[in-house]
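Posting for a labmate who doesn't have an account.
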Amino acid sequence: MDSLITAAARALAGGDPIGALNRVALREDAPALALRGIAMAQLGDLERARALVRRAARAFGAREAVARARCVVAEAEIALASRDLGWPARTLAAARTVLERHGDRANAAHAAHIDIRRSLLMGRLDEAERKLAGLDLASLPPALTATGELAAAGIAIRRLHTRAAGAALARAAAAAHRAAIPALTAEIENTAQLLAAPAARLIAHGEERVLRLDEVEALLASQALVIDACRHLVRKGATVISLARRPVLFGLARALAEAWPGDVPRAVLLARAFRAKHVDESHRARLRVEVGRLRRALRMLAEVDATARGFALTVRRADVVVLARPIEGEHAAVLALLADGESWSSSALALALDRSQRTVQRSLDALAAAGRVQSVGRGRARRWMTPPVPGFTTTLLLPAPLPGD
């Protein structure tokens, strides 16, 4: 490898894409194309970066298996940054195997980190945690150690383990300091700010306030009866009842909890649970049936009693609260992913939300009509984005510099 390629690779490893381009911008050989692609990715021009990395992979000969595998890892990183979650994971796994076989532990670990971050972005926490446990972060270069600790912090934050998240971020910050990569340090600092940002709303006794992640964790560990509107659960201590597949029952439970210790008129329950504008006897009969089902579902935690004008929750020796998302509505989940400020395709959103692409597209069209999101590009290249929602803890994004060599 000549001196310019070596210098460009070192510049990229130090987070200096401009310095790398100054050395290889006019070259068309395979190593230069690969480094140019990585530099363009660090600068944010992902489409050009993808094209350059693919050209580099084709330019490397059949005998240069390690170089081709590195190009695959770089393309996978670009796909993740582009929110192309449908990029073939098998290709990345095969490249990682090649790198491990040839002793390139650093790039093999980087491939593993990309796979972990993809699982985390799609909400597959158990899968991400299992993959991360298979890595020895202490033996990796500082930049990769920091990236791995960021992934650990992301898993802990999603599991509401704030102390573990804080410890992982402290280890990540120490590793980033050793790596001396400004972009990585900034990412860790931004992630740390999530621990102090409002993550949910607490509704109790007719009042509402925002909660930080540690306050949410403490609330769920308390003996309060929590109507969790983030996950459609009813919980008290270690007892958890899922109503995720029973939206009518959850709507009734939330209405009763918001009014606790008072009752809720039947007309209000009909409007909240069934969205009935014109109430007739069939609606009243259905309400009685659904309230009976709610009684049976909550019998371990609370009682639902009839009153003169409606129904009320009765809970012994416990408070009743509602835990709600910072923003709510029909399209809140789509907005939550778009709030990271990155551009998403409708197919990637569908994968991350586990919904059909058509359902996600309808949400995007409605949000675009309301001026809350915007799109760029056409056809399969179309991407959707929105500015970050102030004060909203979003899904963690964990970008890291691509390996130069």
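Reply:
Got it, the structure tokens are right above this. The first helix runs from residue 3 to 13.
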